[in-house]
Every structure is written in C-alpha cells, then in structure tokens.
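Need tokens for this chain, all 377 residues.
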Amino acid sequence: MSAIYLDCNATTPLDPEVREVLLYYYGDGYGNEGSRTHEFGTRAKQAVQKARDLIAAVVAAQRDEIIFTSGATESNNLAILGLAEAGKTQGKRHLITTVIEHKAVLEPFAKLEQDGFEVTRLQVGSCGYVEPDAVKAALRPDTLLVSVMQVNNETGIRQPITEIADILVDHPAYLHTDAAQGFGKDLDTLKNQRIDLISISGHKIYAPMGVGALAVRRRSYDRLPLNPLVYGGGQERGLRPGTLPVALIAALGKAADIAVRDNVKRHQACKAFRDKALEVLMPLNPKLTGDQTLVTDHVLNISFSGLDSEALIVQMKDLIAISNGSACTSNSYTPSHVLKAMGMSDDEANSCVRISWCHMTPVVDWDLVAERLKLLA
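Here are the structure tokens for all 377 residues:
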C-alpha cells in the first residue's frame, strides 16, 4: 500500500475535469493564441479569453485586469519589482511587508532594499498573523506598496487582508496579496476592490504546475504603473511577453470555475477530514501551531513533544506523505523563518510538521498513524 499524499499546500493533485481540458488543448485543440489568420488561432484565443473571464470572476475583476504568468512566484516578482520605477519617479521608496511571507515576496523586497528602497517588515506573535494596527502604524506618506499574504503556506493561518484594505482606503499605497494558498478557497476576501494586485498559482487549486496569474486592478480608469520584468513581445499588455501556454491557461480557467462551483462542498470535506484527524491525534497531547480559529480547513501544523520532524516524516513515509515546511525551501536545513517569527526556538520549529489535504484526499487510517506516533515517543 502506498502512502497517502498529505502535502497539498506544496502542490495539489490535478482535478479530473481540469485534466480533460488540459489534454484537449495539448491534443486536438492546439493553436497559437496570437495567430489570427485561421481557426486554430481563433479557437486558442477564445480559450484564453474564457479562462481570463473565469479567473476574473473569482476576484470580481475585469477580463483585461488578468495577466497570465508561470505561477505565483513570477506574479509576486512582477507586482513588487514592477512598481520600482514608479516608486523612484514619485519619490515613494517605502515598502511594507511581513516577516512570514513566502520567499517569492521576501526576496524581491530584499532586492529593492539593495536598490535604495526602505522596507518595513512587520512582526507576528505566536498567533501567526500580523496585526492590522501594525500596518496602520507603519504607513507613511512615501509608502509605495503594502504586501501581505492571504493565507500562510506553512501554518494555514489567514491574514487580515480585509482589515488592511480598510486601513488603506484613504491612503494611495498599492496593496498586494500573495493569494497562492487562498485563491479559489477563501472567495470573499479577494473580491475587495481595494486590493490592487493579487498573485495566483495554478498548482494550488488542482490545475497544472507552470501557470498562474496576476490580477492588476485599475484605479478608476487608470492602470497601475507596472513595468515588465522581461521584454520581447506585446502579449499580456506588454507586461509578460511570450507565447501564451493555451492548454495551461485553459486548465487554470477551468480550475477557477470549479473552485467557485464546488466551494462549499470542498470546505465541508476538508473540515470533516480535519475533525477526524484531530479526534485521534489530540489524546497524544500535540501542540498546534498558531491561532486555530484562523487556520484554513485543509491545513494542520503540529508537533509532538520529543519528536523531531525529520524523524517523524521518515517513520511515517509508508503511511502518509507530509512535510515540515515550504517545498520551495526544502533544500534548506535551517529552521522555518515563519515558525521562528512566531517565537519558536530552533528545536520547537524543527519539531513541527505540516499536514495538508484536499477534497480528493483518500481516507487516512489515523488510528494506525497514532499507534506509530506512540512507538516513536
């Protein structure tokens, strides 16, 4: 019997309906979206536009406000680095983010800091989320951008995006959120029209790896002053040149559509899975990471006294496939920067494992998992 996959925050399985769309456009539905002289190109263009509409609908945006990218990492870089020239021109060189962001946000901010920008990195407490008042206190007249993730990828803790958006109503700073872990799951938050930039990743919502989007809202009728990171064509309003991967984009659009259609059913399945896991594991006296009232239904960051995460993962690998942090930093043996920011010691951070699942996850024999844990203790 193979292990049951419980690392959906790293990447999700491909939805069967999404797979059908993907294979169609990789097969009989091929064509270049930029070819306007024949039906193959027209069909491809229609597929891209349909996907653009479906993704825009999830965040209450317009079709032409969706820019396709290779994923949330590229979207984050475009959102942050793409505003640099505007910041220099306007004399706004102050940026705000949090210490628990994904490296795809932290590293672009570090690059801008090297280029003369000033970065305020807001702390979090053991609860795992940034206080809205901390954002308010950090704002300055020369603040260009505020970037706070929607849901933390390691802890599953939702950040107060709505409250931050309210704080920024009368401030001109741009608001960006890395929504890789929340897009298509927490639907209402991203419809807030005060959020200027939203980063989306396909492989977190049952679409393929290698595709994502950046939602770039206009302010009134004005487009945001983004500059491209690469050059070579006029695709995606000149912000992301290159031949569009029609099959990947069509699949992402289908995944976005299903996410809305099946949102309630998916949440119910994930909550039932979580409730069963906790029912069996809680008698072992584990420590749950962060404020559990803010944790999404499909994530459990947990530790057991005296057990190192690496040893636990190895001992469980024939039963469940889990992780001890972000897949993007799995080659690093340093303790999680997220857990350290929450006040954990190195040993405490190194004892935590992340269990993440989805509506397609098979039933887990949690009693067997608990028995194995007792043997390790």
